[in-house]
Design a protein that fits this description.
Blueprint (H helix, E strand, L loop, with lengths): L23 E2 L8 E6 L5 E6 L3 E7 L5 E8 L4 E6 L5 E6 L3 E6 L9 E5 L4 E7 L8 E6 L3 E5 L8 E4 L4 E7 L2 E6 L3 E6 L8 E4 L6 E6 L5 E6 L3 E6 L9 E4 L2 E2 L8 E2 L2 E6 L6 E5 L4 E5 L4 E5 L7 E6 L5 E6 L17 E6 L16
Antiparallel strand pairs: 1-30, 2-3, 3-4, 4-5, 6-7, 7-8, 8-9, 10-11, 11-12, 12-13, 14-15, 15-16, 16-17, 18-19, 19-20, 20-21, 22-23, 24-25, 25-26, 26-27, 28-29, 29-30
Length: 361
């Protein structure tokens, strides 16, 4: 019996090296560096943002085929994208200091309205549910060192919170909002009281933060940095004994003792299993079980840095973008640089947690 993309749907394998030979390429990808990608929480649609100033929305079918369904433009490169919870709206976060939203339920497939503004490029955006507030709101994080909350019916922000430094990454799950900034600050906000920081910490990693991603249950978050490390961090002090960090996305060339260290650019949690992926500048991705502190699978190099990743709503597709990540400056970005999005069918036990043994608690 075959599963998604014609892959065998059955048996578990003990091999820790994964197979990317059957991964499917997204049709008509962006023409410049890919900054972000996000699956719809309600359907098999994928939003992809790019340095070519566009956000594209694709429909994915069961065989891995894809078709462009909508597209909207910013005035400058788009640095991030996100979906509303009901899957009807897509927002792009732009270097043009604006967030722009397309309402797909209106039948519009080419234009977006501006819904947020900052004094510097907007790095990231997420839809959030604020307790005691009607309807979803949008939170934006910018290099102007603020995050802002937006009621999409109003042209001015409902609230603005000053951060210590430029916002590099943010993520939300339930009432947890985590913001990673320059100088390794991580601000934690309880959305029940969204106007202030619940807690601020320095990243447990020694070098610049690239990405923060919340656990599925909202009890903590993962941090990835430029130093080839990932940290697992719980919000509450009572859980601090479970915090840890580990090395990843490093390689030791044959005949040397020195390791090449690569940036961790993306972290995504599997929606069912709670396991997670890391992907980096070395062009590899890996699946991990944080509770067992164990790597489940590692995958071969894909032909360029991986800049963004996401699982679809059921967890049976893992999308990753292969694109230049600017880690070596502008001079390395040439017209020959690959820009593509790949769809990997998640099969067997690839992302399933490691079975607990009798000795583990």
């Amino acid at each position: 019996m075959s599963g998604l993309f014609g892959q065998p749907s059955a048996a578990a394998t003990t091999n820790t090296t994964g197979d990317i030979s059957k991964d499917v390429t997204l049709t008509a990808p962006p023409e410049d560096g890919i900054s972000d990608l996000k699956f719809s929480p309600q359907s098999e649609h994928l939003a992809v943002s790019s340095w070519d100033k566009k956000v594209r929305i694709y429909e994915i079918n069961a065989s891995g085929g894809s078709e462009g369904k909508a597209l909207f433009e910013h005035e400058q490169p788009v640095l991030g994208c996100c979906w509303s919870k009901d899957g009807t709206k897509v927002v792009g976060a732009g270097a043009d200091k604006a967030a722009r939203m397309m309402d797909l339920s209106s039948g519009n497939t080419t234009t977006a309205q501006q819904v947020a503004a900052h004094d510097a490029p907007i790095r990231c955006a997420r839809f959030v549910d604020i307790p005691q507030q009607q309807g979803q709101m949008l939170v934006t994080g910018s290099w102007d060192k603020t995050i802002k909350y937006w009621d999409l019916r109003q042209s001015t922000p409902v609230a603005s919170v000053s951060c210590q430094e430029r916002v590099y990454s943010l993520d939300v799950m339930n009432t947890l909002l985590v913001v990673g900034t320059a100088d390794r600050y991580i601000d934690i906000i309880n959305l029940s009281d969204p106007g202030k920081f619940y807690k601020t910490i320095q990243s447990p990693l020694k070098w610049q933060t690239r990405v923060v991603t919340c656990f599925n249950d909202g009890s903590g978050f993962a941090v990835g940095s430029v130093e080839g490390r990932c940290a697992i961090q719980y919000v509450e002090d009572k859980d601090s004994s479970a915090n840890f960090s580990f090395k990843c996305h490093r390689s030791t060339p044959t005949g040397t003792q020195n390791s090449n260290v690569y940036s961790v650019n993306a972290i995504s949690f599997h929606p069912q299993h709670g396991t997670f992926s890391t992907a980096g500048s070395d062009g590899t991705f890996h699946f991990w079980d944080k509770d067992a502190k164990h790597r489940l699978k590692g995958y071969p190099e894909v032909g360029g840095p991986i800049t963004a990743t996401d699982f679809n709503r059921t967890g049976n597709i893992f999308a990753y973008s292969v694109s230049y990540d600017w880690s070596k400056g502008y001079a390395v970005n040439t017209p020959q640089t690959v820009n593509k999005v790949m769809l990997h069918a998640v099969t067997g036990d690839e992302c399933k947690p490691r079975p607990k043994t009798g000795g583990r608690k």
